[in-house]
Amino acid sequence: MARTASPEPSRSALSDEADDYMSMTIIEPTQPPQKETYTQRRIRKQREAERKSQHHVKPSASLSTAIPMTSKGFQMLSKLGYTPGSTLGAAGNKNATLEPVMVEMKDDRGGIGLASEKKRKLREAFEEKELGEKAEEGSFRERVAREREEKRTEGQVVGAMKVLEGLEEDTEDGAAENRKKQKVNVLYRGLARQRQERERERRAQYDLHQSLSRNPAYEEDEEDDRLAWGEEEEDVEEEDEELEAFEKLEPRKRLKRLVEVLREKYWYCFWCKCRYGDESMEGCPGVEEDDHD
Q: What one-character-per-residue DSSP string does 89-104 give?
C-alpha cells in the first residue's frame, strides 16, 4: 500500500507559534480568594435579610387587600352567587368566616411544628431550673437551721457539764484528787481535759516570754538546764477510750444523759435551773425542753 504523506503545517502557522511570546497581551496573575472580613460578612448578611424581607412583603400585602372586581377570580365567585360582604358556602352556615385564612410565611428551614417543640423544651428547661433553684434554696436553709440547732445543743451540753461538775465538787470529798487520778466523771471529763490543755499552753507561753526577756548575764542553774533540755518528766496524756466513745455521741444524746444524771442523782432540773428538795421534784413540768415552754 502506498503511504499517504501527512500535510505539513503552513509557514504562517509556524511563525505565529514562534512569535507568540512577542504578543502584547498581558495575562494577570490569578490571586487566591481573599478572606471575608467581619464588616463584609455583617453587611452581606444584612443585605440578605433585607432581600428576604422584601420577598415576603408582596404576599403579605396581597393577602391584606381584597381582590378587585375586575379579576377573574371575583367574576367566577360572582357567577356562583357571591356578593361583597357575604360569606362563602351555604347561607345558613354559622361557622362561615368573612376573612380568608391568613398565611404565615416561614423564614427558616425548620419543619412544621418545630417552633412549638422548641417552645416546649424551653419551657421545660425553665421549669426544671426553677425547681432546682428552689430545692437548693430549701436544702441550704435546712442545713443552716440544722447547724444552728447543733451549735445551740453543744452550748447546752457544756452548760450541763459545768452544772454537774459543780454539784459533784460540792457534794463529794476529794474531787481534786480524783481528777488527778483520772477518776473524773466521763460526763464532764472533757471540760477537765480542756482546762489542762489551756493551762499547759499558758505555761508554755509564759516560759517562752520569760526566756526572751531574761538578762543575758543571767546564769542558769542545773534545774533550768534540765527544763531546757526536756529532761524533766512531763505528764503524758493517755488515750481515754471511754471519753472518746462519749464524745462520738450526737450532742442531743449527750445532753439527754447529762440531764438524766442531774435529775436522778441531784434532783436538779437543767431546764428549770433549780434543785428540788426530793426525788419527786414536784413543780417541774417534765424532762424535755419542750415541756418547759
A: S-TT-TT--SSPPPPP
